Structures are given as structure tokens and as C-alpha cells.
Amino acid sequence: MSQHSAMPSVTDTEIDLALFGALGDLALRKLFPALYHLDREGLLPEGTRLVGLARQDLDGEAFRQQVAGALQQRVKSDEQDKTSLKRFLARLDYLKLDFSSVEGYEAVRAWREGSPRPMVVYLSVPARIYGDICRNLQASGSLDDSTRVVVEKPIGYDLASSQEINDVIGEVFPESRIYRIDHYLGKETVQNLIALRFANPLFGTQWNQNHISHVEITVAEQVGIEGRWGYFDQAGQLRDMVQNHLLQLLCLIAMDPPSNLDADAIRDEKVKVLKALKPFVGEALGRDVVRGQYTAGTSQGAAVPGYLEEEGANTDSHTETFVAMKTEVANWRWAGVPFYLRTGKRMPEKLSQIVIHFRQQPHYIFDPDQRSLAANKLIIRLQPEEGIALQVLTKDSGLDKGMRLRPGPLHLDFNNAFPKSRIPDAYERLLLEVMKGQQYLFVRRDEVEHAWRWCDQLIAGWEARDMPPRRYPAGSWGPVASIAMITQDGRSWYEDY
Ligand SMILES: NC(=O)C1=CN([C@@H]2O[C@H](COP(=O)(O)OP(=O)(O)OC[C@H]3O[C@@H](n4cnc5c(N)ncnc54)[C@H](OP(=O)(O)O)[C@@H]3O)[C@@H](O)[C@H]2O)C=CC1
Ligand SMILES: O=C1O[C@H](COP(=O)(O)O)[C@@H](O)[C@H](O)[C@H]1O
Description:
Blueprint: E1 16-20, H1 25-40, E2 49-54, H2 60-74, H3 82-90, E3 92-96, H4 106-112, E4 119-123, H5 130-139, E5 148-151, H6 159-172, E6 178-180, H7 188-199, H8 201-204, E7 212-220, H9 229-254, H10 263-276, H11 283-288, E8 289-295, E9 297-299, E10 302-304, E11 322-327, E12 339-344, E13 351-358, E14 377-383, E15 387-395, E16 405-413, H12 414-417, H13 426-436, H14 445-465, E17 470-473, H15 480-487
Parallel strand pairs: 1-2, 1-4, 2-3, 4-5, 5-6, 7-12, 8-17
Antiparallel strand pairs: 7-13, 8-11, 9-10, 11-12, 13-14, 14-15, 15-16
This protein binds NADPH dihydro-nicotinamide-adenine-dinucleotide phosphate and ligand LXAUTJHC.
The ligand O=C1O[C@H](COP(=O)(O)O)[C@@H](O)[C@H](O)[C@H]1O is lined by residues 183, 221, 240.
């Protein structure tokens, strides 16, 4: 973000966007709604052109109708207005293409012919065909030195496969034009972490093992695997959520202050954290990590099947749908501070939050029964209601309360504090950053690879010890062992939801 000094004007953000996989789940559920919102807010400059690519035999009109149907379903009704919808749909072209074969790419080149704008190629397709698309675009002469490529997670299945994928993308695009998405980096509160930590001296001076006792990161999902058995069973919650989203959150909490807001200054600091993450060896594998898999239970009051009864399931699967772990960043700032991470599908509610637990005062003078209360917590809520709350202790009010302590929040609720501004979806922000050519919210190759290295050793440990997942009923907070893991340290998961 050194671009601060020379922030591009809106017209600098004009692009030609080629969206591969335009009729897929991600494109229809997230990307087109995000692009629609950008257009509605005046952030898609006049000349911006969008082409959807897929292999269905459609003409432009039929494609626009499919996108219009998706927008009707996905965009809140009070945010759908006829003029914006009409303008947005009018920007869309469609190209039928089999991505694996170079034949047909001539149409992409022709679509670009004479355009003064940079092209953004968005690969909303499985990672195994990233290489084919990059090479075919190059072979057909569709690329130039300004083309950017956006790739989705997961980049591979382990370190080796991610290196292969990164190698083929890297044959065609330099790192400075590769945008690896981790959509958690586009969430409003995640970005606020950077502001919170580095703009507030109050926190800057306290952000280390002298003042922080432990950190919790919870990313609980209410949904199950949503018909994605084929993908999910190969991955599991560690690869699907921890390798990327949770480790990115951990990095933003744990990293040292970057020397400026340049993309590489931030990413250098994140890499240092990933390299300092303690591996799980020996006893720690059984003690500090819990894998779980949901069985039948309830969700929002309705009965739901277990993981092994989901459509397309293989009943022998040991894939985990839940992981909890205690890890540590082994460096001067964090030595001895546990980072407790948990994430799972079919939890009681959708909740993503980070809780920073500050240490207690060195000498305690209040009611001994209240001793466990006597520490500040900083609660950073990513979803559903974005906000930041600092839990402080005050005297309980009333004549009969004496010097009883009462924990209460100093609360910043983004929706109430900034009521006029709609909180944009992560993909809106990320697409806008790609349009501006700014990379600080995207993941660099070495980050992906260090994250895989750490996950690979954990998976190898599970496999070597044959550690099947523990069962938990859908609609619960995971296996009981995940609660025992933290209570054995005299702590508990923060549950004041
Ligand atoms: N869906 C999600 O919520 C998330 C997805 N992602 C990532 O985003 C990417 C897209 O995911 P998703 O939308 O779910 O996947 P889908 O399978 O729903 O969409 C992929 C699209 O690509 C098309 N496609 C695949 N191969 C070819 C080919 N050779 N030629 C032409 N078209 C082809 C498919 O067409 P067809 O239907 O004809 O097969 C399909 O429309 C993946 O990398 C995924 O890991 C990341 C985070 C969340
Ligand atoms: O990347 C993924 O993220 C979603 C959760 O995203 P959220 O923004 O709804 O929290 C997860 O369901 C999916 O399995 C995973 O691939």
C-alpha cells in the first residue's frame, strides 16, 4: 500500500475482467453479487468490461439471464434496483470455451483486441486446471505485460502439489501480477486488525507475552459440507480452513509491525510468524490437537444428517470436519503464549471471533471469589456482527455491592457506529483491490508454502499415529476433548456470544 501517496483515481481502475468458471458456485453465489455491488456504488468505471467463460452452450442473453437469477437470489431485495441491475447486466459478455484445450482461446484474444485496459483473469475453477488456462492464454496471445491473474484457494492439497500449481502459474505470470485469494483477508474486521494494532499505542505497547496470557481464534460454521463431498472429503477442515483462513488470522494477530503498509512489508512479517509456528511432535499430537467429525444432530431446530450420511458419502471416511489445537509462535514476542484455534462445520451458530486475553494484574486486591474475572479481554468479532469490544472491569453499581467487580464491554459495533455505511462483502473489497493493482490483501507464494509445510507435518503425524476423528453431534461445539484441551490449562473457550 505504498500506493497511498499515489492512490489510483477511479479511471485507473478500469479493467477487462475475464471470469473463468462463470457458471460455477463461487461465481454465481459470490463474485457476480460482489461485482454488482461495486457497480451500484459507482466503483466499476464506465469502460470496465466483463466476460464470463464456461463450457455451457449459451448465448449472451441466456448467460445474462442466469446471472440475473443469481443476483435476485443473492442480493438483498432493498439493494436490487432496476437501473443498477440493467446497467450491470449490460456489461456482461459470454464466451463458451473448454478451458483445457487451446482451441477456442482465439476468442479471448479477439475479445481483448485493441483494448487499452489491463486484463484481469479470474480463475474460479478447480486448481488442477489453473495451469492449462494460463498456458492456453499465453499460447493464444491473449496476454500482455499488464495482465493480472486471480486464483482461488486451496492452492493444492499439500506442499508438493501447491508448489506444482504455483510453478505453472509462475511460468506465465510474475509474482507481482498473481493475486491469491483468501477471502478472510477481505473481511472488514480483519482489515481493522491492522488499524487496531498499529494505529493505537494502547495496544501496540501491550501486544506481547508480558501482557497477553493467551489468544483464542474460533471460526465456527453452522453449515455442513453443502453438497461438496467430492471436494471436502479429500480436504478436511485442516486443509479447507486452517491452512488458509485461520493461519492468516493468526499471522495478523502475531506479526511484528511492518515498516510500512507495502504488500511485501506486511507479507514478510506474516512469513516470519508462519516460520516460527511450533510443529506438533510426540506427545503434543495427542495432547494439543483434537480432530472431530459430526454425526447426525440438529441445526436451527431441524434434524440434519451426520457427515457419513451426507449425499455421496463414503461411510469409511476419517476426514475431519472439526479441528481444535493449541499452538505457539516460538519467538521473543510470543514465547509461552498459547494460541488456541478451533474451527468446525455444523456448530450451533456461525461465529468467527478472536479473543485476546490480557494477563491479570500482578497483585490482586478485590474479592478473592472474583479473581478469575480480573483480566481484560479484547474481542474481535468477524461475523456475524462485525465489531470490536474491550472487556474492562468496573465497580458494580448499587449501594449494597461494596467493591464488587463487574466486567462490561467498551464496544464498537460497526453497524451501529457507522450506520450509514453498508459493510461490504469480502469479495467486493478484494475485487476492488485487484482492479487497483494492490496486493496487500493477497497471499504471497511463500506464505502459502510455509502454511502447507506446517499443516503437512501435522497431517503426517495423524497418519503415522492413525488418529481417527472423534465424533460430535451436529449442533454442538465439537468433541468434548476440545473443551478438555483448554480446561486442562485452567482456561475455557470464551462463550459470551
Ligand atoms: N464455492 C465456494 O464457496 C468456494 C470455492 N473456492 C474455490 O473457487 C474455485 C471455484 O469453485 P466452485 O465455484 O465451487 O466450483 P464449481 O465446480 O462450482 O465451478 C467451476 C466451474 O468451472 C467449470 N469448469 C471446470 N473445468 C472446466 C473446463 N475444462 N472447461 C470449461 N469449464 C470448466 C465448471 O463447469 P461445469 O459445471 O461444466 O463442470 C464450473 O462451472 C475452486 O478453486 C474452489 O476451490 C474457494 C472458496 C469457496
Ligand atoms: O473457504 C471456505 O470458506 C467457507 C467459510 O467462509 P465464510 O466466509 O462463510 O466464513 C467454508 O464454508 C468453505 O468450506 C471453505 O472452502
